[in-house]
Write a structure and sequence with these properties.
The chain has 135 residues and is an all-alpha fold. It has helices at residues 11-18, 23-30, 35-42, 51-68, 71-78, 106-123; strands at residues 2-3, 6-7. It has 2 domains: 1-49, no CATH class; 50-135, YbiA-like (Tetracycline Repressor, domain 2). Helix 2 packs antiparallel against helix 3 (35-42).
Length: 135
């Protein structure tokens, strides 16, 4: 995933680095051994002052890179049809998902919007492989 001038091993790495107020924290997260480690590290950093305002936009951009540019993942997203996509969890995340049926489900909503966009992209595609644009 590309965020700013840097490549990250996963969406989680890039998202957690994007929230950092300091470049040293971004570097440490970029070098984290796993997505889980990046997430744990992201919980301890000083947040950039505009994080609350931009975090949905950052996630939307990263999901675009993951699901729209990559034809295989785009096909998997499209295979969900018109089903509602819910980021279900048991750890109480009611921002990105739903816990016990309660929550904003921002991740599911972003993915459903991307699915609609993928349908549009595919309806105008000439069949060329666009994966070379993913980096």
């Amino acid at each position: 995933m590309l965020y700013g001038p840097h490549w990250y091993p996963s969406v989680e790495h890039a998202y957690q680095a994007a929230k950092c107020a300091h470049s040293k924290d971004q570097l440490a997260i970029r070098q984290a051994a796993s997505a889980g480690m990046a997430k744990r590290m992201g919980k301890t950093v000083e947040l950039r002052t505009d994080w609350t305002q931009i975090k949905l936009e950052v996630m939307a951009d990263l999901l675009w890179q993951k699901f729209i540019i990559n034809p295989k993942l785009r096909a998997q997203l499209l295979a969900t049809g018109d089903r509602e996509l819910i980021e279900g969890n048991t750890w109480g995340d009611t921002f990105w998902g739903k816990c016990g049926g309660v929550g904003a489900n921002h991740l599911g909503n972003l993915l459903m919007r991307l699915r609609d966009l993928a349908r549009y992209v595919d309806s105008y595609s000439d069949g060329r492989d666009t994966s070379q644009f993913a980096g």
